[in-house]
Design a protein that fits this description.
CATH superfamily: P1 Nuclease
Number of helices: 11
Helix content: 40-55%
Radius of gyration: 19 Å
Strand content: under 5%
């Protein structure tokens, strides 16, 4: 883990820790639905990552993605090569599909804010169809894409679809960062679930928590009159193709806002997770307030900075995804 030399604003005394735990229990109950539902970049951000990657694939890799999208369905609905990036989220919340509720914990890794927190990179949980972490999951996907068999990933098409999604999640700061609670009662969440248990009072969204703010950073707009950040309802991913104006405009926005040097495309899943984790630590601590309270507020400046980071992360995730597939399918 990174050595943490910043002020430890999450640390509490024993008495304060117990009070904090009680607040957390209440907040967990209030946010039970968001905790289940908001665990990834929003669908548009995932499709932006996919579009960026797809435009940079060599012909062999592009053929593989096209082929995989023809195999992947959700309750009988077929995906295309762009909206397939939303499949891994779709199966989490859809009953009756053969993959319903599969791979739920493959979307994130719980790296803490302090260097004394558990290090899941050094001590990963065993990967199962329900549990594990995103770094281990990506390694398994790559192995299947390279011709190996895996009891958890039935075929190459599923491996590609998971890779197509998880590489986006790997670059969302709160998918690699979480606040570990001190003195949490037995049976309660030991972390804030990557910000899902931190409500944001001036955020308008179906799931107005800190994690969701980062998920939808590129879709929302700041409302000066109401001093709030507003994210509109998401588009149905099955209506989106590679040429949809909404998608193309957003991709052009992130591409024009950033230049990614070739050196930034190097590394591996572990290095990329640590890099994203560093952004996540900053995301918490740059709030300038005690994020252990029941609710926080965000400023226009904070949201603007989050949007700038999200633009670069979506672009970086897409370019690295293309690099991985071009290497696996030369």
């Amino acid at each position: 883990m990174y050595a943490d030399s910043r002020p430890d604003i999450g640390q509490a005394t024993v008495d304060g820790g117990i009070g904090r735990a009680m607040r957390r229990c209440a907040l967990t109950l209030c946010l039970m639905i968001p905790v289940v539902s908001a665990q990834a970049w929003n669908g548009l951000e995932h499709m932006m990552t996919a579009k960026i990657a797809y435009d940079r694939l060599n012909p062999h890799a592009k053929q593989k993605v096209d082929w995989a999208s023809e195999q992947i369905t959700l309750l009988g609905k077929h995906y295309n090569s762009i909206n397939m990036a939303t499949w891994a989220d779709g199966i989490k919340h859809t009953k009756g599909d053969p993959f319903s509720a599969h791979y739920n914990n493959w979307h994130f890794i719980d790296m803490g804010l302090k260097d004394t927190d558990p290090d899941p990179l050094a001590n990963p949980q065993p990967l199962t169809v329900k549990n594990g972490d995103i770094v281990t999951a990506l390694k398994h996907c790559e192995a299947v894409m390279s011709g190996q068999s895996d009891p958890l990933i039935p075929n190459e098409a599923v491996a590609i679809a998971l890779m197509w999604h998880l590489m986006g999640d790997l670059h969302q700061p709160l998918h690699c960062t979480t606040d570990y609670y001190p003195n949490q009662p037995s049976g309660q969440h030991k972390t804030d679930i990557g910000g899902n248990n931190v409500a944001v009072s001036n955020f308008v969204d179906p799931y107005p928590n800190f994690h969701s703010l980062w998920d939808g950073a590129l879709e929302g707009a700041w409302d000066d009159k109401g001093n709030r950040f507003v994210v509109p309802d998401e588009a149905d991913p099955f209506t989106i193709t590679a040429t949809s104006p909404l998608l193309v405009d957003k991709v052009n926005e992130v591409v024009s806002a950033n230049t990614i040097p070739p050196a930034d495309l190097g590394g591996d899943y572990v290095a990329w997770a640590r890099e994203t984790h560093a952004l996540g630590v900053t995301a918490y601590e740059s709030l300038g307030q005690d994020y252990t309270q029941n609710k926080i507020t965000v400023s226009a400046a904070y949201v603007s900075n989050a949007q700038a980071i999200a633009r670069r992360q979506v672009l970086l995730g897409g370019m690295r995804l293309a690099a991985v597939l071009n290497r696996l399918y030369p």
